[in-house]
Amino acid sequence: LAAVAAPAADAGAEGFRAFRVERRFDAGGQLLEEAEAPLPAGAPDGRAFTAAPPDSLEARGYIVGPLDGAARFHAPDERALLSDGFARTHCFAPARGAGAESGWVGVRFRPVPGRAPADIDGVVWLDAATGEPRRVDYRYVWARLPREARGLGGWTEFARLADGTFVVRAWRIRFPLLLAGRGQLFLDGYRERGGEIRPAAGAGTR
Questions:
Q1: Can you tell me the distance from the alpha carbon of 61 to that of 145, in angstroms, rounded to the nearest whole number?
Q2: At residue 88, what are phi and psi to the nearest 5 degrees?
Q3: Cβ pair 124, 136 in contact under 8 A
Q4: What per-residue string of b and e applies to 88-121 under the rule 16 or more CB within 10 Å gives b?
Q5: Number of Cα atoms under 13 Å in the Cβ half of residue 162
């Protein structure tokens, strides 16, 4: 299985470096492997992390391919969340933050009834005072996913640079590792992929 590094971030922001993080867990959630590596600057589109186009996510969904093979797990970036296709394929309701999110207000989203492709539901969190985006939490919604798999989905955190530009500060995707046998899928563990943009000395976020 392969996960797609979906949330978009500016790879060329001066004074920042992008890192990719990968972890593997057994079926019980025990951490088995962990690795981190810097990403080279200067991606062709100027972004460290790129998402599938919004029209592709609308048509094909957020999980593409056989679950016991090279399935690709996608996540939304800001372009997907603001697209007409996302509005057409999701229902929305207000959500209130709690605990660490008590200063946030949220917009909850879920797939429209009867939507066939794999999709996501979750909450987009905004700063209650400024209306700035802070975080998106989501989980995968698809009847083909094994019921015993837990915590499938991810999150994206946003930050504002000193010049007012918004970037993705960090993101994670968690997806299952599945094996086929006796006509069904068996959970063999989990993989978690993500990334972070870290400021160098003198560069800041808000």
A1: 14
A2: -70, -30
A3: yes
A4: ebbeeeebebeeebeebbbebbbbeeebeebbbb
A5: 8
Distance CA 128, CA 117 (A): 33
Return per-residue pLDDT of the chain as tens, 206 residues.
333 434 444 444 456 788 899 999 999 999 999 999 987 764 544 556 667 899 999 999 999 998 887 789 998 887 888 899 999 999 999 987 655 566 888 999 999 999 999 999 999 998 888 888 888 999 999 988 888 898 999 998 887 777 776 677 888 999 999 988 877 888 999 999 998 887 765 555 55
pTM above 0.90, yes or no: no
Residues present in the chain in total: 206
Residue 204's CB is within 10 A of a number of other CB atoms, namely 12
Q: Tokens 């697209």 label which residue?
A: 83
